[in-house]
């Protein structure tokens, strides 16, 4: 598990390999990740958007920006957490991801970034 705390918001990531399959005549490697966002601060916060950098050992870096996470913009009171599952496809059996969540603090009305720790993606058969 990878974890990182930014401004009282703890991000934890657990990854797993989902298997291989052919798509458009190419082999793809599916990876899943479980992210928990835990509010350890004293303020109510809301996740508004996300930014990902997806590194593929055989491909260029892919940038993904979007609203919320899996269609939600969770509001977290102090001590609350939000967990969600997502995934990505790579052309290589090895890669990594990192990024950040854009959030707003309801007490101060200030926007801030919460960094997601870099996490590796690796098919078990590709790791020694």
Automatic annotation (TrEMBL):
PROSITE patterns for this protein: APAG
Descriptive protein name: CO2+/MG2+ efflux protein ApaG
BP terms from Gene Ontology: error-free translesion synthesis
SUPFAM superfamilies according to UniProt: ApaG-like
Matches recorded under InterPro entries: ApaG_domain, ApaG_sf
Sequence ranges assigned to domain ApaG in this UniProt record: 3-128
Phylogenetic placement of the source organism: Bacteria, Pseudomonadati, Bacteroidota, Flavobacteriia, Flavobacteriales
Listed NCBIfam families: PRK05461.1 (NF003967)
PANTHER family (UniProt xref): F-BOX ONLY PROTEIN 3 (PTHR14289), POLYMERASE DELTA-INTERACTING PROTEIN 2 (PTHR14289:SF16)
Coiled coil: none
Recorded superkingdom: Bacteria
């Amino acid at each position: 598990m990878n974890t990182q705390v930014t401004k009282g918001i703890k991000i934890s990531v657990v990854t797993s390999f989902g298997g291989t399959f052919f798509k458009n005549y190419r082999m793809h490697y599916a990876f899943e990740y479980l992210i928990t966002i835990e509010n350890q601060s004293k303020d109510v916060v809301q996740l508004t958007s996300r930014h990902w950098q997806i590194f593929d050992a055989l491909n260029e870096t892919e940038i993904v920006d979007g609203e919320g996470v899996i269609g939600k913009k969770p509001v977290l009171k102090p001590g609350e957490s939000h967990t969600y599952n997502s995934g990505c496809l790579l052309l290589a059996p090895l890669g990594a991801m990192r990024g950040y969540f854009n959030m707003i603090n309801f007490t101060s009305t200030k926007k801030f970034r919460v960094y997601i720790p870099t996490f590796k993606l690796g098919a078990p058969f590709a790791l020694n």
